[in-house]
Amino acid sequence: MKLAVIGTGYVGLVSGVCFAHLGNEVICVDKVNEKIEMLGRGEVPIYEPGLKELIDTNVEAGRLRFSTDLADAVNKSDIVILAVGTPSLPNGEANLTYIKQAAAEIGAAINDYKVIVTKSTVPVGTNEKVAAIIAEQTNQRFDVASVPEFLREGSAIRDTLNPDRIVIGTTSEKAQEWLTQLHSPLTDNILVTDIRSAEMIKYASNAFLATKISFINEIANICEKVGADVTKVAEGMGHDNRIGRSFLKAGIGYGGSCFPKDTQALIQIAGHVDYEFKLLKSVVEVNQDQRFNVIRKLEAILDDLQGKTIAIWGLAFKPETDDIRDAPAVEIIQTLLQRGASVKAYDPVATSNFSRLISHPQLKYCDSKEEAVANADALCLLTEWKEFAEISLLELEGLLRKPILIDGRNVFSEEELSQTSFIYYSVGRPNMN
Ligand code: NAD
Predict the structure, then answer these.
(1) Where is the signal peptide (predicted)?
(2) What angle do CA 277, 280, 286 make, to 5 degrees?
């Protein structure tokens, strides 16, 4: 099939490449010239494991190209996929500016029957708005469909090629037929719904996962006070098939470009129909507070952070990505700096994104994990990159000025720690002094 993917970010680029890999002809479009130029030179603007290799193969095979010319890409395609950003507005609502702009551009370009698919996460009713915007611009026939995206950054290619399910929300038989054909090489588990339910499935799924995270984080906070170990509690809970094991890892809370904005957006969607989503509001509040446990724990050990040097391992909101949108590290580092600490930060791939966001005379970005901890008064681990777990704790102890480790992701085990003299605070597990 011939596809145009509008928006070449984390979702659009990965989806476009994977559809090309399945044998479709794909044009990935973005309005940011530099991105398209980079891709044209064989460079990849985001970090995602395996992406570069898959791009190279499909460009070479002539199935994948990149362009800034939306009209041309729409003209040459049967299916147009919207994968533009839907960031939060200051009140938490989804900002639909990019969706509406892209819809208007599609409407102006459309030359023949097309199926217009929204993959971006959008509030209920948005696909109807997209249809109305396109219809204002053209007399051509077209159908719309909501096909929400569930990929996770860091495992985006695997998730796209092996989805748990595909949701197709449409009222059009033709769109259903084409989209089933497009997705059937990926899975048999294709769920066809009305458009509004498809839009809601995405928000409900993310809100539910966020709820699991905040739930286990609150259990962790109680475990700390009653002397239980949350990792054992989560394991014991997770063996119950009704509960499941995933998303029960206690830590410093969720971040990233989806859960924070999508939970806020769903609270707003509910509010617009006079429904107060009390449970989800608490999930957000718990998550927001959880990251500050790192600061509270540091202060419990060091008293005053003024003049102290704190090493930070991990800036990305999770491992295997360079995405720092809403990463807990942002607020933790800002708070440390406000309290007068100096910060030495290291991340395997997210440093350049982070340094564009925060620059401060007391914040030094380091080229290695060893450089970050050298002569620091304490180390805070914020992202569970594999290379952090692999370090020898005895070696690490020798590098720090004081052997203080706040492990925000429960990376290290009691057994490993017992060989060292670390003062070790993790999440929902007994402290070690
Ligand atoms: P992103 O910011 O990485 O990419 C969006 C891209 O769209 C940008 O490159 C931007 O330049 C481009 N764009 C905006 N308007 C355009 C236009 N008119 N024409 C061409 N290009 C345009 O965003 P993302 O992380 O890929 O997310 C996209 C959507 O998918 C969002 O709604 C998000 O909630 C959803 N989503 C994201 C993830 C994820 O893990 N990132 C997962 C599932 C769903």
Answers:
(1) none
(2) 140
